[in-house]
From TrEMBL, chain A:
This is DUF4179 domain-containing protein. The keyword Transmembrane helix applies. The chain crosses the membrane at residues 46-66. Keywords: Membrane, Transmembrane, Transmembrane helix. The keyword Membrane applies.
TrEMBL record, chain B:
The keyword Transcription regulation applies. One of its GO terms (molecular function) is DNA binding. GO terms for biological process: DNA-templated transcription initiation. This is RNA polymerase sigma-70 factor, ECF subfamily. Keywords: Sigma factor, Transcription, Transcription regulation.
Length: 369, 175
């Protein structure tokens, strides 16, 4: 074999691919193609019927989302057949309530809860098999299309969907602490989000809200909490588009005891991370017994230089993740900065999960006298 | 072209197009996006697809165009959530060859990894025809048609790419 044949053979072996697109991906493509073809005539009928329908459209914010995909279609579009089936069952609640805020209209399309309702794996399901799935659409108020996911301007602004529990501080009990996750797609200029988290049905007798808004965090800038009544409202000073829905859950499904136990675990994250996560054990021993400030836990953002940016309570930090984590290193808290006074030390720590998502947090530790 | 034809396109050329997207975009998430956008874009331009006129080449050329237009987005995503090489696939493809000893398998694995890394770093003018030829298994003529360049230019770019990669290998201590 001469040199040309050798390199040719090696290139064939190195660059050929045995990978195939998933069936779900192919189904999604076929669905989207068929959907776009069937949507066209519907749009024409809408235009003709617009004048007649205008009185009904003006009649209230809860007008039915007649042009939007159903929760079942949204799940199908994302390739989740099991969830699509769940949204077609009697347990699913179809809501179709819209709220317009700023430049956007948010529509709560539907909700369902139960075990094994999704084809997608989520490690949180091993701990809490009962999960809730909520489908929300986000449209521009002026009707202009939201950029496709392939567009550079997609995700600007980004949106957060989170359940909030009446009687619980929203910055402590929310999508981040309830093992949440979200899947998004853009169809015909509308964002569809499926948000999943630990089941909220156990809270059905207390009152559960669904927050949807621009931005990435739940804090006192986005929502207000009434300590006396436990009610949660939108912060009127927040200039970003946001909406708060009250979820119509069946109070019979509430489980007070289970809910109390769950809240106990959510509200005491430090002992949990010490016992169940090897991550904290891997940090410098000097900072193994810190007290984490729950409100400080945030996903980092990235600046133009690719540095991870974290900010909490006036402390800003920019750090290179390449410097912080070795290749492939995940599941470990890394202590970066230490700020101290006479009484205590404040440390900033970063954590990278197996999906590459990096979270920052601030923790405090009393100084030894 | 109707939906049946689009279904056929996905069935007949999905694997080749996906493999190409995976090489070009370097990670699965981006590859899934690029693959999906390729077929959706192809559907928009369906009057240009003809069964007798090399649909695979057309799909690959659509993928190249989309990737060039959106490469900043893909690069940004990769910085945020980098994903590693698909080692399992590499191992499987190697194990299916006639290599006889474990040592030879190890060396071949290292060479393949070296080539993939080096190919990723090539200029697009060399990288894209390389992936079209070796990953999408297109002929020189089809590559020339898809990229709208002369066949001689394709040959010359492939030659340069092979030469570059051979130099990388020759600098490898295992060589």
């Amino acid at each position: 074999m001469n040199k040309y044949e050798e390199i040719d053979q090696l290139l064939k072996q190195a660059l050929s691919s045995t990978d195939e697109p998933s069936e779900a991906l192919n189904q999604e493509i076929k669905y989207r193609i068929k959907e776009s073809k069937t949507m066209k005539p519907v749009r024409k009928r809408i235009t003709v019927a617009l004048v007649a329908a205008v009185i009904f459209i003006m009649s209230g914010s809860a007008f039915a989302a007649w042009k939007l995909l159903t929760p079942k279609q949204v799940a199908e579009n994302l390739g989740d057949k099991t969830l699509a089936k769940a949204f077609d069952s009697e347990n699913a609640v179809h809501i179709n309530k819209s709220i317009t805020s700023g430049d956007y209209t948010f529509t709560l399309l539907g909700i369902t809860s139960g075990k094994n309702l999704s084809d997608f794996k989520n490690s949180a399901r091993d701990i809490q098999p009962d999960r809730t799935y909520v489908v929300v659409s986000i449209e521009r108020k002026d009707g202009s299309p939201i950029p496709k996911m392939s567009d550079e301007n997609y995700n600007e602004p980004s949106f957060l969907v989170s359940p909030l529990i009446k009687g619980q501080k929203p910055w402590l009990v929310n999508i981040f602490t309830m093992n949440g996750g979200a899947y998004q797609s853009v169809v015909d200029g509308v964002i569809y989000t499926i948000t999943e988290c630990d089941s909220i049905e156990m809270f059905a007798d207390r009152g559960v809200y669904l927050y949807v808004g621009a931005g990435g965090f739940i804090n006192n800038e986005t929502v207000s909490y009434n300590e006396e009544t436990g009610e949660i409202t939108l912060n009127p000073n927040n200039k970003e588009a946001s909406a708060l829905f009250e979820l119509p859950l069946d109070a019979k499904k509430a489980d007070h005891e289970k809910a109390e136990q769950y809240l106990k675990e959510v509200l005491n994250p430090v002992p949990k991370s010490r016992t169940s996560s090897e991550a904290l054990m891997n940090t410098d021993n000097d900072f193994a017994d810190v007290t984490v400030i729950p409100e400080s836990i945030k996903e980092v953002t990235y600046n133009n230089n690719g540095l991870a940016c974290y900010e909490y309570n006036g402390i800003k930090m920019e750090v290179s993740l390449d410097f912080l984590f070795k290749d492939g290193e995940t599941g470990t808290w890394k202590t970066v900065g230490v700020d101290e006074d006479d009484m205590e030390q404040a440390v900033i720590q970063f954590f990278k999960d197996e999906n590459g998502v990096v979270i920052g947090r601030t923790a405090k530790k009393a100084k030894k006298q | 072209m109707d939906n049946i034809d689009i279904d056929s396109l996905v069935t007949l050329y999905g694997k080749a197009v996906y493999g190409f997207c995976l090489r070009l975009a370097k990670d699965k998430h981006n590859a899934d996006d690029l693959y999906q956008e390729t077929f959706l874009k192809a559907m928009e331009m369906c009057n240009k697809i003809d069964k007798s006129n090399n649909p695979k080449g057309f799909l690959i050329s659509v993928a190249v165009g989309l990737w060039k237009n959106n490469r900043r987005k893909y690069a940004r995503r990769q910085r945020i959530a980098p994903e590693g090489e698909l080692n399992e696939e590499m191992v499987n493809s190697i194990m299916s060859t006639n290599t006889s000893t474990p040592e030879e398998v190890v060396i071949l694995r290292e060479h393949c990894a070296l080539i993939r890394n080096a190919a990723d770093k090539l200029d697009d003018k060399l990288r894209i025809p390389l992936y079209m030829y070796y990953t999408a298994e297109m002929s020189i003529e089809d590559i020339a048609l898809a990229l709208r360049i002369p066949k001689g230019t394709v040959k010359s770019r492939l030659h340069k790419a092979r030469k570059n990669l051979r130099n990388v290998l020759e600098g490898n201590p295992y060589e």
